[in-house]
Write a structure and sequence with these properties.
globular; 10 strands; alpha/beta; two-stranded parallel ribbon; 8-stranded mixed sheet
Length: 413
């Protein structure tokens, strides 16, 4: 793909003034004036404190926030020697376009390590930058994913779809493939920028799963950085998902066609190594509206009946109908059924000729149904018990049933 300069003039001018840098922290943003100043302070302090011999740059890539986010970045004091660039990204509106601008600036400055962190983080501290950049700079890792302590009901798209699917497909166990806070090498940066994906959902919420899947399949060394608790702006899993579910799961499914030869050959999984000592921080609790999620599954059973009939195997369809008819107090949604449903939808997304977005929208009520099942199963569990007895157990089920996915995929080809 030919190189296309997508930086605005203000950013190009700053890049020329700075010339060269060694480490860069990028912060994507949209209307984060209330939280971004803290992230800027912690990130810049971290670069100076842990990498005193490297030339540091902080980049804010903003979506044109009307709340003055960029001005907060420019006004926030930073340690001597830290350069700042605050610019508005170009391209489709979304997190991926914001990241693309950060990547372009990092490439232009020739950095050795690039880190990206979310703009709504309240738990970020200077040592986070060492955890995300240290493996790249000191130990030759190409990609660093975050390993957080999260409340059992935080990150339900990760828990239910992205984590078990990524682990099962590609054989690498990274617990937070879409964690939002990553570190990576200049080599991987060039790989990212060479891909022709910037008009797709990768330009939006699909960016994180695309970065992780690309890194795994590029064969770079990957580790997980222990980050303690992620304290940020969380949502009730029953709340409207908006476009995020469609974009994340759609990107995950579309990459299955790209890497088909690889994932079909993978059996089992290996845990990606951990970096840094454990951090004892309690995550903030996440409230869930259980009845609403069950109601969404029941509504889906009516509204999506025809689509489900086309996508789900007869056995899975019958099981879903039975679950939708259960009284609230007896509600349960087994992991084995959920894995088979995800496989049905992954195959339909890639092979059925149906509108891909419609396929993912049809999966959404089932996702709520499975999430409600997890809540029912785990009400008395601690977050640590939930992790082992529910999430890890579910991931093993996906791995065990993988031959069924391959069989369905090949039958539809």
């Amino acid at each position: 793909m030919p190189h296309e300069n997508i930086l605005r003039e203000d950013a190009q001018k700053r890049v020329q003034e700075i010339g060269q840098a060694d480490i860069l922290v990028g912060i994507p943003s949209y209307n984060n004036a209330a939280t971004i100043g803290h992230v800027v302070r912690m990130a810049t302090q971290g670069m100076v404190e842990y990498f005193p011999d490297l030339r540091p740059v902080l980049v804010n890539s903003d979506g044109g926030s009307p709340d003055g986010t960029r001005q907060v970045v420019l006004d926030t004091p930073v340690p001597d020697g830290v350069e700042k660039i605050a610019t508005v990204y170009q391209g489709p509106s979304g997190k991926g376009s914001s990241f693309r601008t950060i990547f372009e600036i990092a490439r232009a400055l020739g950095v050795r390590a690039c880190v990206v962190v979310d703009s709504d983080l309240r738990s970020i501290a200077p040592w986070w930058i060492e955890r995300l950049a240290g493996p790249v700079i000191k130990e030759g890792y190409g990609y660093v994913t975050p390993y957080y302590t999260r409340h059992k009901y935080d990150g339900t798209i990760t828990n239910n779809v992205v984590y078990p699917m990524t682990r099962m497909l590609y054989g690498v166990d990274v617990r937070q493939p879409i964690g939002g806070d990553f570190g990576f090498s200049s080599e991987l940066l060039h790989t990212y920028l060479s891909q022709d994906v910037w008009e797709t959902d990768v330009a939006r919420y699909g960016i994180d799963i695309w970065m992780t899947t690309t890194a795994i399949n590029a064969g770079v060394k990957i580790c997980q950085a222990r980050m303690g608790a992620k304290i940020h702006d969380v949502k009730d899993p029953a709340a409207a998902l908006g476009p995020m579910f469609v974009q994340v799961v759609g990107t995950l499914f579309s990459l299955m066609s790209r890497y088909e030869d690889r994932w079909k050959a993978v059996t089992g999984s290996q845990l990606a190594p951990m970096y840094g000592p454990e951090v004892d921080l309690e995550p903030e609790p996440v409230a869930v509206t259980l009845k609403l999620m069950i109601d969404k599954l029941r509504a889906g059973a009516q509204e999506q009946a025809q689509l489900w009939q086309r996508i789900l195997s007869p056995q899975n369809l019958e099981a879903v109908r039975e679950i939708a008819a259960l009284p609230y107090e007896d509600y349960a949604f087994p992991a084995e059924l959920w894995a088979r449903i995800v496989f049905d939808f992954a195959v339909a997304y890639n092979k059925s000729g149906l509108d891909p977005e419609r396929v993912i929208l049809g999966m959404t009520p089932l996702y709520y149904g499975r999430t409600a099942g997890l809540v029912m199963q785990s009400r008395e569990m601690s977050s640590a018990e939930f992790e082992e007895q529910v999430i890890q157990a579910q991931a093993r089920v996906f791995e065990e049933l993988k031959p069924q996915l391959i069989e369905k995929w090949e039958a539809a080809s």
